[in-house]
Write a structure and sequence with these properties.
- By secondary structure, the protein is of the alpha/beta class.
- Helix content is 43%, strand content 15%.
- The strands form four sheets. A six-stranded mixed β-sheet has the order 3-4-14-9-10-13.
- Strand 3 and strand 4 (109-113) form a beta hairpin.
- Helix 5 (123-141) runs parallel beside helix 6 (154-163) and helix 15 packs across helix 17.
- It is globular, with a radius of gyration of 21 Å.
- Residues 1-13 have low confidence and may be disordered.
């Protein structure tokens, strides 16, 4: 379905309900969706309808980021207006730039800087909001929640900083030991608050994600341990990320006089680019979403061939994208397969059984372009942008820029998502430019000698479950 088709635009007339992509769970309200994470049938929650906001865009052009966040989020949740405004204000008060997610002109492209939050990564845009949302909902009932997170790098530290010190929340973060950057690891393991637990898993991010989905899919265990999720399986994560597509597009269209834009999105777990897809379906005039992967190119291959085939995880200079099984791809499949849960279940069962699934209809969708960039190309783009424009890209952002340079030549302005501060990846920057003094940030410098705490565990569901039970149950 085209984002501009009448069926994609439904006027909201009542509080939003949420459905499971797999179709075997009852409709849920926003509160339950946030606290549950996964649906009881192990599907992902999606809104029962997509609000049409195309007629609002002209009025929104002058909005601040927080005002725009309120206008978008209120269409998907039933929180009182004052409570929602307060949550948004507190979430973005932690950012060090007044525009929250500023857009900068760099050569013939625009860079959307999503790294001005407390952990210097785009995950802060969602998790500073989600952490406060969790706490607000739990305070209403006096309940406690134990959050389980799988991270390929940035989600873990952003989730920890979203809930650290919250009296009603414990957080357990699994990261693949030795497969994230040293600074990413230190950002997590140097947080010593008593409600924070870091687990170094002997395996890949896909192993961590498999463990998370298995434990959250065990309904008896999930309820007994009060488990929730801050990964992008949680709809509230996607909701918060939709906002910066609107904020950047409206800014660039106002600055250039253009009537539509393109986005280049580095992605591994498909959550960030799926937020852009939802923005397009809501009526934001996006001409193209350029999906960019590193050598772990399962998503790029799907959009180019129709085949979703599992491969081995390849370590790269952009470790947050070293993923094969992308959680949010299931949400996209729901729409691609005609909003038919039975077809979604059939596709996922085939993938689980055979490690591959072939789309029955691989008609080209002009909204999408997809490609990948290896480490050499990533370094070349970092070096090129630095030498020409004096602007430093982190390796994930460079993947997005590299793929967009090769694939897309439209006249519509190109907005490249800068997903992390380059100081988080000094080794990659040094390899690309030959200098080790460029990628620095005072927050990260302060972590170099900080004490750390983590527990090493095998990539085994039973061992992780036992650890959770020991630390949650009296």
């Amino acid at each position: 379905m085209s984002p501009s088709s009448p069926a994609a635009r439904v006027v909201q007339k009542k509080n939003m309900k949420y459905l499971s992509t797999r179709g075997n769970s009852p409709a849920a309200d926003f509160r339950d969706v946030v606290l549950e994470g996964l649906a009881p049938d192990r599907g992902l929650y999606i809104p029962e309808r997509i609000p049409d906001v195309a007629s609002e865009l002209a009025a929104w052009t002058a909005h601040s980021y927080s005002e725009l966040a309120f206008e978008i989020m209120r269409r998907f949740c039933d929180l009182p207006a004052d409570a929602l405004r307060d949550l948004i204000a507190r979430a973005y008060s932690t950012f060090d730039h007044p525009d929250i997610a500023p857009v900068k002109r760099v050569g013939d492209r625009w860079i959307l800087e999503l790294f001005h939050g407390p952990t210097l990564a785009f995950k802060d845009l969602a998790l500073q909001f989600l952490g406060r949302l969790f706490n607000t909902l739990l305070e209403e009932t006096g309940e406690q929640l134990n959050i389980l997170v799988a991270t390929s790098g940035d989600t873990g530290s952003a989730a920890i900083h979203g809930v650290r010190g919250c009296p009603n929340i414990r957080i357990f973060v699994m990261h693949p030991r030795g497969r994230i950057s040293p600074l990413q690891e230190r950002q997590m393991t140097s947080v010593l608050d008593p409600n924070v637990f870091n687990l170094a898993i002997e395996g890949s991010f896909d192993d961590c994600q498999r463990i998370l989905k298995t434990l959250l899919g065990d309904l008896e265990l999930k309820r007994a341990l009060r488990l929730g999720a801050m990964n992008s399986v949680n709809w509230a994560r996607v909701l918060a990320q939709i906002v910066y597509y609107f904020s950047s597009a409206l800014h660039v269209m106002r600055a250039t006089g253009a009537d539509r834009v393109r986005f280049a999105v580095p992605t591994g777990n498909f959550g960030d680019v799926f937020a852009g897809y939802m923005a397009a379906r809501m009526g934001l005039p996006i001409e193209r979403l350029v999906l960019a992967t590193n050598a772990n190119d399962i998503l790029a291959r799907f959009f180019n061939t129709g085949e979703y085939r599992l491969g081995r995880v390849i370590p790269t200079l952009s470790p947050s994208m070293d993923i094969q099984v992308a959680s949010n791809f299931e949400r996209y499949l729901f729409y691609r397969l005609g909003e038919n849960p039975a077809r979604v279940r059939e596709a996922l069962e085939a993938f689980d059984r055979e490690g591959r699934w072939m789309s029955p209809d691989h008609a080209h969708d002009p909204l999408w372009a997809a490609g990948h960039a290896d480490d050499d190309r990533t370094c070349a783009v970092i070096r090129e942008i630095w030498e020409r424009h004096g602007y430093l890209l982190d390796p994930h952002t460079a993947v997005g820029v590299a793929v967009a340079q090769r694939l897309d030549s439209s006249d519509a302005p190109l907005i490249c998502l800068a997903t992390a501060h380059p100081a988080k990846f000094p080794e990659a920057i040094a390899r690309a430019i030959g200098r080790d003094d460029l990628a620095r940030h005072e927050r990260l410098d302060a972590l170099r000698d900080a004490p750390t705490r983590s527990e090493r565990l095998p990539a085994d569901v039973r061992r992780v479950r036992d650890y959770l039970e020991r630390h949650i149950r009296p």
